Amino acid sequence: MSTASTTAATSTGTGPNLPVESWPLVPPPPGRTVNRAHPESNACTVHVAAGVCIPLIVIFASIRLYNKVVINRGRTWDDYTFMLASICAITYISLVVALLDHGPFGFHIWDLVVANVKNSSLLLALVLEGIYGPFIWLIKLSVLLMYLQLFHPFPWARRMAWLGIIVTALFYFSTTIAKFGLCAPRGRVSYIEAFSAPRCNNTKKLGLVTGYFNVLSDIYLLALPVPCVWKLSLKPKKKLGVIAGFMTGIS
Questions:
Q1: Pick from 194, 203, 47: which is nearest to 117 by CA?
Q2: Is residue 42 within 8 Å of residue 106, measured between CB atoms?
Q3: For 72-81, how does the pLDDT look when each residue is reduced to its tens digit (9 = 90+)?
């Protein structure tokens, strides 16, 4: 067992004489009371968010599919990536809900002991960390492919769209490899030891960088169509309406 678990057990007064399965993961913060009999869970918040997001994804994906297949009777590459991204989004949300319902996640870590943490739960958490980047990239890819179709008369916009595809692909797939490299167990090391290792803590910084990149890339997606729309032969109010439509659709 890792040194971190031994330290946590000693600092909380449980002592190393108890079975390893009874050791707490970390000591509680000052002023917080340990409640291992009935730990407080934040899973309800995720359940509500999932209950709202999944139906919205299904509704909007169905509308787009009906419009392309029945009304326009034509499909482009961005339609395929959009549908794949929708399926991936639903899959990801469902796996997060399953992880909260059948794993140690969603609770305060000081309310948990070693026995609460199973290798299967940590494996699923590692998988979720790994597939997050490619799934997000699929969403951005579908938008950028749509730009390639819509802004064909603007060569500079097509070049910017291709640049966005390449840069986002490099970033999200490289961070996926980094997450697996930092937190995946090596040799006979268990998942809980791998997750508590100092190198796995670096994923927090990686997550912060990913958050900044998500915001910047979203701004890029929002700003890219604005010059193209502004050059259209439309009244200013209609141009603003089209731009607003792009922003609403992306967000």
A1: 194
A2: yes
A3: 777 788 888 9
d(CA 61, CA 20): 49
Predicted confidence band at 19 (pLDDT cuts at 50, 70, 90)?
low
Q: How far apart are CA 192 and CA 117, in angstroms?
A: 7
Interatomic CA distance for residues 247 and 216, integer angstroms: 15
How far is Cα 77 from Cα 151, in angstroms, rounded to an integer?
A: 15
Q: Which residues contact 63 (CB under 8 A, 6 or more apart)?
A: none
Q: What is the pLDDT of residues 206-239, one digit of tens each?
A: 889 999 999 999 999 988 988 888 887 778 788 8
The DSSP code for 72 is I
Q: Which residues contact 80 (CB under 8 A, 6 or more apart)?
A: none
Q: What is the DSSP letter of 18?
A: S
**CA 153 and chain centroid, separation:** 34
Residue in the structure block whose two tokens are 């692909």: 169
What does each C-alpha distance from 200 to 4, 116, 196 come to in angstroms?
13, 20, 7
CA 155/CA 148 separation, integer angstroms: 9
77: Cα within 13 Å, side-chain hemisphere: 10
What span, in angstroms and rounded, lies between the C-alpha atoms of 192 and 99? 16
Q: Supply the pTM of this predicted model.
A: 0.75
